[in-house]
Specification:
heterodimer; A: 537 residues; mainly alpha; two-stranded antiparallel ribbon; 2 strands; 1% strand; B: 342 residues; alpha+beta; six-stranded mixed beta sheet; five-stranded antiparallel beta sheet; 8 helices
């Protein structure tokens, strides 16, 4: 009973902060003045302007998925299948673009390729490009796809590497007995990991579709920016909701397809535990190509954007000014991020438990239901939360006017992610650990407190830090819901971009990058400590 | 009074029936072994008794109290006063041996002094006193087994359930731990249900054996009954070494085997075709034997040899003390009083 009550409570909470705002929002958009009306939806599907916006979103997401796979698949392959020198270093660096908020990479590339950008100057001087054409490129749908694929290629890389590493080595070995390395790669390895690659591309597609920061920064007219414009500039929430409809529909369809596609197809890859027994292709020239490729990716995706931001900040005083300017933003970000991460960790634990540990037929459907909400664009959630909470009743007024609306925004956006992380950690604990406690006569809360939570300490710390990292960088929802005086660092950055010098913007971006990378460092340090102490035990 | 009664238990997963109307009981202080191949439903049965799973139908009675009926659990798992040793032992790696054992006592609300008294007593019983402050990862496989047993019995449960506890340890250690289990069970007299697919475990430990196959009880009895008088072909084949030969009943107490006619009790068999069953030790290689054969394989076993004898295109297993060479022609007989017909 204790277990059912607790899990039920957290699931209900999840439904309240994610599902309810969206349903409420859609309900409001079709119901008004005593009747149903689909006038805004008619506009969306029949107006040329909106059809263009929808196609822009689809083009952005498709190109990003393709570009990410061009970089991510080889990177994952080289990490998993060749004896790459400095593999750990490369891998850690390749994670950076995924970890840091996407708009910071956008700011860096806009600085580089903008009209007065350093790279723009070089390209126009030596390669016969006009400064305008280079600048037009970065401020276009293609430029946005380029920057987004830098941010999202690690998703493809990670899944490809994981799939390759977990491939049953005997399947490849049996091919190698009779065929060459490349024949095995073409006929056995690649077909076996194709489901994983397609799945990763679908995830990138969905994430690009729901991205707000980069399209907004690079002034690309897509569905997420349209929602923001309709809501914030024209105060037309019904139109904003109607625009959100195709976005939600597409993302839900793609996510469901991804889940359906994965079922049964990827068992060979995902059914096995992580192993280091994968076969390495020890071909000399392939190793050389791997090193060159990974170095180029490192330069293009990590060193260039980060060093551009550092150089654009120019002076130490820029950081000083940036900190002064964003003092409140920094404090709020740390405070809201900490509270948000704590809530997300608890939500993640119990939702992860629901998705992984309950013995019920509904387990898979529950996991899918929770995961689907990761696809809900940030701006859509923002509008939904405002629609739900902006009302005169006491509790709603309190939430709407305080930091809690931002926290709820974080929880709504990232609890599918934190639950997925926790589910993966919970998977590693055998059911018998918990059953041994309950059989012996302990209540579920005692088992929870004395067995499950302590056994999950590593997972809880990881979830907290990852959640904190995502909360710190969150902009799409916060920009819509934050009450006056409660702006976070990304909001400050978004505001100062319009009216502050570029060096301050760059300095602020670096501060955000440091604040998001710091938890990763802490996590790595804690992991090392825990592993050491486990060995010592 | 029976300490445990399982009545007409049925359990389905989706539409597949994994436990089909099984019934058995265990007397107080007895050790009952649920023996059967993997996937026969024995662990599911054990989990239902523990309350970890709920059956679709049937009843579980523990010491005369109805614990579950139909598809309803009447006594929740934590109130059934059951100790359980899991297949993977499930020792909590973040707790010391002492803390692992103490957990159940704390859950029962015992005072600290009483808890420590019981922990000392149980550690003495399993001869593991000096490991009280060790973490499980520091212990050997056998020691971990004993700690898992100590944790399960420290609360003095009405019933001790053991789910293949010896399946993950090597043969030598297995023998030692088996002896320890026997000793501890004998000393504590805790009614025990022991799930295993290993007949040696079942035969050396149990007072009573329930042989299961495909969710059904094939036979219940003491070890001698199960071994010497199997009631089904499955039990005959599954328990111990055996020869099963398809034969034709050609007359009253007469069957036709591949190597000639053989006299045996055919009472109760109406069909023409049947299976003749006998153990390797029930056949003898002897000079004046009834049938001819050639030795095709010889294996040394402690206390003699097992032979495979080819006879009329079939191979049979025979156990003998004397040594014969592979390829040697021999004569053999089968003790007709000890064969069974299915």
């Amino acid at each position: 009973m204790q277990k059912k009550l607790t899990l039920g409570f957290f699931f209900a909470l999840f439904v309240c902060v994610t599902f309810l705002p969206i349903v409420w929002m859609f309900g409001n958009s079709i119901y008004g003045d005593g009747g149903f009306s689909f006038v805004y939806y008619k506009d969306i599907f029949l107006t040329q302007k909106y059809i263009k916006v929808i196609s822009n979103s689809l083009i952005l997401a498709s190109i990003t998925a393709l570009l990410s796979s061009f970089v991510g698949i080889p990177a994952g392959f080289f990490l998993a299948k060749i004896n790459l020198p400095f593999k750990g270093f490369f891998k850690m660096c390749f994670f950076i673009p995924l970890i840091i908020p996407s708009y910071t990479t956008g700011i860096a590339w806009a600085n580089l390729l903008g009209k007065t950008g350093f790279l723009n100057n070089i390209l126009s001087q030596y390669m016969l490009f006009s400064p305008e054409s280079v600048s037009n490129f970065i401020y276009s749908i293609y430029g946005a796809s380029f920057v987004l694929s830098i941010n999202l290629f690690p998703v493809v890389m990670l899944i490809t590497e994981y799939a390759l590493k977990n491939l049953n080595p005997r399947l490849e070995e049996s091919g190698l007995v009779t065929g060459s390395v490349f024949r095995v790669l073409r006929r056995i390895t690649l077909p076996l990991i194709t489901p994983a690659i397609i799945s990763s591309m679908m995830i990138v597609f969905v994430l690009s579709l729901s991205e707000f920061g980069i399209p907004s920064l690079l002034q690309v007219n897509v569905l997420t920016t349209q929602i923001f414009t309709q809501f914030s500039a024209f105060y037309n929430e019904k139109a904003a909701t109607a625009i959100a409809f195709p976005l939600i529909a597409i993302t839900f369809v793609v996510m469901t397809l991804e889940q359906v596609y994965l079922q049964g197809k990827s068992f060979e890859i995902l059914g096995r535990r992580g192993s280091n027994s994968t076969i390495k292709y020890d071909v000399k020239w392939l190793n050389v190509v791997g090193v060159i490729f990974c170095t180029l990716v490192l330069i293009g995706c990590v060193i260039i954007p980060l060093s551009t931001l550092v150089f654009s900040a120019q002076t130490i005083s820029a950081y000083h000014d940036a900190i002064l300017l964003a003092k409140r933003g920094i404090t709020n970000s740390v405070l809201f991020g900490s509270i948000g991460a704590t809530f997300l960790t608890f939500m993640g634990f119990f939702l992860g438990y629901l998705s992984e540990k309950i013995q019920s037929r509904l387990r898979n459907s529950t996991a899918l239901f929770i995961w689907l909400f990761f696809a809900v664009p940030a701006t859509v959630l923002g509008v939904g939360l405002i629609k739900l909470c902006n009302r005169p009743e006491g509790i709603f007024q309190f939430i709407y006017g305080s930091l809690w609306i931002v926290i709820i925004g974080y929880v709504a956006r990232f609890s599918p992610l934190s639950s997925r992380i926790m589910a993966n950690y919970l998977k590693q604990i055998p059911h018998s650990m918990e059953e041994a406690g309950t059989v012996i006569g302990a209540s579920w809360y005692r088992v929870l407190g004395n067995i499950l939570l302590p056994l999950q300490s590593h997972g809880l710390i990881a979830t907290w830090l990852i959640s904190f990292m995502f909360c710190i960088g969150e902009m799409g929802t916060t920009i819509l819901v934050y009450p006056p005086g409660h702006e976070t660092l990304p909001i400050t950055l978004f505001t100062v971009m319009a009216n502050s010098p570029a060096n301050i913007v760059s300095a602020l971006s670096i501060i955000i990058v440091v604040m998001t990378l710091l938890p990763v460092g802490v996590f790595l340090a804690i992991s090392k400590y825990l592993i050491k102490s486990q060995i010592a035990q | 009074m029976n300490a445990l009664e399982v009545k007409h238990l049925i359990k389905c997963f989706d539409s597949r029936e994994v436990v089909s109307d099984i019934s058995f009981n265990v007397e107080k202080g007895q050790l009952l072994a649920l023996l059967g191949p993997s996937g026969c439903g024995k662990t599911t049965t054990l989990r239902i008794i523990a309350g970890l799973d709920i059956q679709n139908d049937g009843e579980i009675w523990i010491e005369g109290v109805l614990a579950s009926h139909g598809s309803k659990s009447l006594i929740p798992q934590r109130l059934r006063h059951i100790g359980m040793v899991f297949q993977d032992l499930a020792l909590w790696p973040h707790m010391t041996v002492c803390e692992n054992i103490e957990f159940g006592l704390k859950a029962k609300g015992l005072a600290k002094t009483e808890r420590h008294k019981k922990i000392d007593a149980v550690l003495t019983k399993v001869k593991m006193q000096k490991y009280a402050n060790e973490y499980p990862s520091r212990l050997s496989g056998g020691q971990q087994q004993l700690i898992a047993i100590a944790r399960a019995i420290v609360t003095e449960p009405k019933l001790l359930l053991m789910d293949e506890p010896l399946s993950n340890i090597d043969v030598k250690l297995r023998e030692d731990v088996r002896q320890e289990i026997r000793r501890i069970q004998h000393e504590t007299q805790i009614t025990t249900v022991y799930v295993t697919h290993d007949q040696e475990d079942a035969f050396l430990l149990a007072n009573k054996v329930v042989v299961m196959n495909a969710g059904k009880v094939e036979q219940t009895g003491n070890t001698e009954e199960i071994y010497s008088f199997p009631k089904s072909l499955f039990v005959a084949n599954f328990v111990g070494e055996s020869n099963v030969i398809d034969v034709k009943i050609v007359g009253k107490d007469k069957v036709s085997t591949p190597w000639g006619e053989f006299a045996c009790n055919t009472k109760g068999h109406e069909k023409e075709s049947a299976f003749l069953f006998f153990r390797p030790h029930q056949a003898r290689i002897e000079k004046g034997g009834q049938f001819d054969g050639v030795i095709v394989n010889r294996n040394f076993v402690i206390g003699g040899y097992t032979y495979r004898i080819s006879t009329s295109g079939r191979e049979i297993k025979v156990q003998d003390l004397a040594k014969y060479e592979v390829g040697q022609s021999v004569k053999f007989s089968i003790k007709k009083m000890e064969v069974l017909l299915f």
